[in-house]
Amino acid sequence: MPSESTREGAVPNWTLRVVLGLCVSALVIVGYQLKNDQRSPAATTTTTLRTTPSTTASVPTTTNRSSTSTTPTTPPPQPSKNLPPPVVNMAAFKPPGAGCRFSTGAPIPTTPSDTSTTSGPTTSTSSSTIVPTISAIGHCTVLEIGDSLGNDLGWGLARQLGHDHEVHLVQADKSASGLLTPWFYNWPQKETVLLAQNKPQLVIITFGANDEQNLKVDGHVLAFGSAPWVTAYTDLITKMATAATKTGAYVLWVGMPIMQPNGYRQGMVLLNSVFAKVATTVPGMTFLPTWELFANAKGQFEVAARVNNIPSLVREADGIHFSYVGENVIATYVTRTIGEVYHVQVTPEAAMYIDR
Fold first, then answer.
1. In the chain, where are the structural domains located?
2. Closest listed residue to residue 325, CA positions, set 291, 354, 348
3. How far apart are the first and last CA of the chain?
């Protein structure tokens, strides 16, 4: 049991402890308040400089940074330059009707009674020549046929031309098909049916990817690349193009792009030469080369390129077909060619160009 003297001394000790505790608490509170008072002016000043337009010095700097970060510095995509022009047959060919204003600018025979008048978007310059001017496209049906590369082009065209309500695009490709395998898919017969069903004013044709093979004529096998083979293949291309032009439709034959497989690539060079030659003999036919469009500056195959200033894959891993971006690149090229060759106003929906 604690003594009396101990109990009496405990009271002063407890009182002292309480008083000292209150003093320490008061000092802590005062110190915290003083610290906050010292930070507040600086914080307020910083906030004001960042947000108040009337404050000088820092506001222009902030505004300039914002302007730089939001203003695009990359110029809009532009068409590729230094590409070979299309082979356009300028022989007499009557432009399509049905409200479609396609015209190649080919000399169109007229009679003396016609010289004072014009039809559609054309302007008379003499008694024997009518030169077209650029005009609204009118209502046009475009039939697109081909093999698997034709499929790639057709999908791209659906995206680039899909916004244009004046253009009715009919995509009728067949993967794994070609012009030399009628037992699998008879394209001459199919073309006749498609022409009758759709009555197009323009037929876009893409063949060749599966035509690097021997050709059988009258029971004789002609070796690919031989002179007889070239003659027979030329005749086949001519018949395909003429079948369309006889109905009053223009033909835009899209050439094969550069390929990665070396031996296969050489065969494509031969096919393109045939397409170009036929275009010079069939009125209303145009051959559009695409080889240089997808070759690099050294004329070599590349699976990727800068498209609209963005590094992109343009070809598939097989070195033959197009990627999604590649489809858009070739479709942009074809769409612009339609406008330039046939003298109509047509614009790609989302143009994609390989930077040169």
1. 4-70, 87-345
2. 354
3. 103
What single string gives the DSSP state of each residue in 267-328? HHHHHHHHHHHHHTTSTTEEEE--HHHHB-TTS-B-SEEEETTEEEE-B-TTSSSB-HHHHH
Share of the chain above pLDDT 90, in %: 63
- Residues 240 and 179: beta-carbon distance below 8 Å: yes
State the amino acid at position 289 in one-letter form. P
- CB contact set of 155 (below 8 Å; sequence gap of 6+): 171, 327, 331
Q: Amino acid identity, residue 8?
A: E
What separation in angstroms does the CA of 276 have from each of 261, 285, 289, 334?
22, 10, 8, 16
Instruction: Give, in order, the Cα–Cα distances in Å from 234 to each of 160, 239, 273, 274, 278.
Output: 31, 9, 10, 6, 7
List CB contacts of 32: < 8 A, sequence separation 6 or more. none
Distance CA 17, CA 139 (A): 100
CATH of the structural domain 87-345, one choice from 1.10.10.10, 3.90.1200.10, 3.40.50.1000, 3.40.50.1110: 3.40.50.1110
Token digits of residue 317: 């891993």
Measured distance CA(36)–CA(310) in Å, rounded? 51
CA distance 344 to 327: 23
Sequence-distant (6+) residues with CB within 8 A of 279 are: 87, 88, 89, 241, 253, 285, 286, 287
The dihedral of CA 176, 144, 179, 228: what is its sign?
negative
What pLDDT does residue 253 have?
A: 98
Q: What is the DSSP track for 317-346?
A: TTSSSB-HHHHHHHHHHHHHHHHHHTTEE-
> pLDDT tens digits, residue range 224-262?
999 999 999 999 999 999 999 999 999 999 999 999 999
* Predicted pLDDT of residue 96: 85
Report the DSSP pairing between strands 250-254 and 202-206: parallel
Q: Which two tokens stand for residue 70?
A: 């939001």
Of residues 243, 272, 245, the one with CA closest to residue 257: 272
Closest to 137 measured CA to CA, from 121, 114, 117, 113: 121
Task: Return the pLDDT at 133.
Answer: 82
Q: Indicate whether 32 pLDDT > 70.
A: no
Q: Is the pLDDT assigned to residue 301 strictly greater than 80?
A: yes
